[in-house]
Amino acid sequence: MADVLTSATAAKTETALQGPQGPKPHKTFSRRNIMLYGTLIVVAVYYAIPLWIMVMTSLKGMPEIRLGNIFAPPVEITFEPWVKAWSEACTGLNCNGLSGYFWNSVQITVPSVIISIVIASVNGYALANWKFKGADVFFTILIFGAFIPYQVMLYPIVIMLREIGLYGDLGGLVIVHSIFGMPILTLLFRNYFTSLPQELFKAARVDGAGFWGIYFRVMLPMSIPIFTVAVILQVTGIWNDFLFGVVYTGPEAYPMTVALNNIVNTTQGVKEYNVNMAATILTALVPLFIYFVSGRLFVRGIAAGAVKG
């Protein structure tokens, strides 16, 4: 017993001589933390100020806006600019606001996102797990197409859509967005499927599963994060697109961004800045909603292999 006590005392003495154990505590207000959080706060304020100005201006009447203090909150809140932007603002000769163009954007975005993601996911799955002759050449050509400037292909696509009778129609713009979204989405899906354990694919092959069986029963349930990434990228890109919308559609089929441009650049009568700001926020609500709802899954998808390869 005495030997045990002596050993314990010796161990405590040795520990005391060695000093405190465990990780070194970090100072809350260290120079590093002050620089890091200070930079983040400055950047956050820099990006938040324009949004603040837009929201405050959209809630003011024109007499208050003319006072010139764009940073001050409204003395009297009014939602009349929002109502006018949605249902009464003029886009050229049409004075029905953004409501009709909103549904145009929905009809363009939803099928374009579904078609491009479905095809790209199958392409990425095939390139990652089912090697075929010429797969690398096909993949190289596909990725090369993602870096060709859109402006180079504007006129040839106009001719193609005209020949098939879809120029100026919503269906033609859906085809354009679906095709242009596939290269980068195929790259994302291929890299993600490559990062998954190959043992799962081999085990499914041993069990007798075929191409579609493995895709639907093994790969698809594990790919929710990368599908979220693809949806966010496509919805944001298609909804915010202006160039394709103004080139490939007519006045009755314009997406919301083209209508917003027509509202903001209208020179008829008084320049209503509150209506312009409300229209801009209304146009941006859908991408903002998508980000807020699925932002965490977006980060998971990126971390899980969306940019690996």
Mean pLDDT: 83
Uncertain runs: none
The separation of the N and C termini measures 62 Å
Q: Per CATH, which architecture of the largest domain?
A: Orthogonal Bundle
Structural class: mainly alpha
Number of domains: 2
Which CATH top level class of the largest domain fits? Mainly Alpha
What is the element string, with H for helices and E for strands? HHHHHHHHHHHHHH
Shape annotation = globular
What fraction, in percent, of the residue positions are helical?
over 70%
Break the fold down into its secondary structure elements and pairings:
Elements: H1 2-18, H2 31-58, H3 62-65, H4 80-87, H5 99-129, H6 135-146, H7 154-163, H8 170-195, H9 198-206, H10 211-219, H11 224-239, H12 243-248, H13 256-264, H14 273-306
Helix pairs in contact: 2-14, 4-14, 5-8, 5-11, 6-8, 8-11, 8-14, 11-14, 13-14
